[in-house]
């Protein structure tokens, strides 16, 4: 039986955390050795609710004392597992819910050699598909998304987002996937090291998956495993939208030469500029952030 440690990152998550923890209780065919809930200085009852579930789950609470970001919180959670024995780490958002067989299916897929990250099908609360798989970031894809927007994901492979529902009906390898729910093989975790804490809140999972690929580990998607995800505010909150856009440009710059990075920046800036002119508040914030790239993003507390 596969031994799995679980890391959940919370920030003012009291409304959704109980449902998340409850969904872990009927997990079939795996041994949950530890559930680490890492709290980024919540002002609600997230920490109290964590302790309330300790009689049902092997819970450990870690409090960062600040809004440290997703990567830093994941790293803090993994660090507490140093003396634990586990085959894999399940990283999940508090606004996700598992089906009873989800972890077992993902653990079975992880047994194939050099598979390092296994991800499930993600559904919205109403049961519709939430596209979660991505292709490699390229200048061409950034330009396509700048010109035609989200529709790029529906036209062949010209967009970074894999939007075709048919692609979510079969198991296959992908370049990266949303970090809301992913199973990480223990050997891969030990080999590639910590998540990159300099990418605050967004693009951490992109960097982690790309780095895993650099080391020869693949990311595998298995649609038999299903997770419900309520989702975040990056599409409506200007500050979060700006963080998302700036981080993906920063990450591309780190991994590519100057000419490619400049072209990618221009493509993303073009797209946000066009949408800002149309009155989109999130694009106005993103454009301002792109024009001042040296400003360090902050989540505040």
From TrEMBL:
List UniProt keywords, sorted A-Z. Answer: Glycosyltransferase, Transferase
Keyword check for Ribosomal protein: no
Residue limits of the Glycosyltransferase 2-like domain?
6-127
Q: What pathway or pathways are given for this protein in its record?
A: Cell wall biogenesis; cell wall polysaccharide biosynthesis
Entry keyword Cell division: no
* Similarity-based family: Belongs to the glycosyltransferase 2 family.
Q: What is this protein called?
A: Glycosyltransferase family 2 protein
């Amino acid at each position: 039986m596969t031994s799995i440690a679980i890391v959940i990152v919370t920030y003012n998550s009291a409304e959704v955390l109980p449902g998340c923890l409850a969904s872990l209780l009927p997990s079939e065919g795996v041994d949950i050795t530890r559930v680490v809930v890492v709290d980024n200085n919540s002002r609600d009852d997230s920490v109290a609710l964590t302790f309330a579930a300790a009689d049902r789950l092997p819970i450990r609470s870690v409090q960062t004392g600040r809004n440290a970001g997703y990567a830093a919180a994941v790293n803090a959670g993994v660090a507490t597992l140093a003396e634990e024995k586990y085959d894999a780490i399940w990283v999940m958002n508090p606004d996700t819910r598992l089906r009873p067989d989800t972890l077992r299916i993902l653990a079975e897929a992880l047994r194939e050699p050099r598979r390092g990250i296994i991800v499930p099908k993600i559904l919205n609360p109403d049961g519709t598909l939430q596209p979660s798989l991505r292709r490699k970031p390229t200048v061409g894809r950034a330009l396509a998304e700048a010109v035609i927007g989200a529709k790029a994901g529906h036209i062949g492979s010209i967009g970074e987002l894999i939007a075709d529902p048919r692609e979510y009906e079969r198991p296959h390898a992908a370049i990266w996937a949303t970090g809301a729910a992913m199973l990480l093989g223990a050997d891969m975790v030990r080999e590639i090291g910590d998540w990159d804490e300099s990418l605050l809140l967004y693009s951490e999972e992109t960097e982690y998956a790309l780095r895993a690929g650099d080391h020869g580990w693949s990311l595998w998607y298995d649609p038999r495993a299903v997770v419900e995800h309520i989702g975040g505010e990056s599409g409506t909150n200007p500050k979060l939208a700006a963080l998302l856009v700036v981080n993906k440009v920063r990450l591309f710059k780190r991994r590519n030469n100057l000419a490619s990075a400049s072209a990618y920046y221009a493509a993303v800036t073009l797209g946000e500029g066009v949408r800002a002119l149309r009155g989109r508040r999130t694009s106005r914030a993103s454009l301002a952030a792109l024009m001042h790239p040296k400003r360090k993003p902050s989540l505040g507390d």
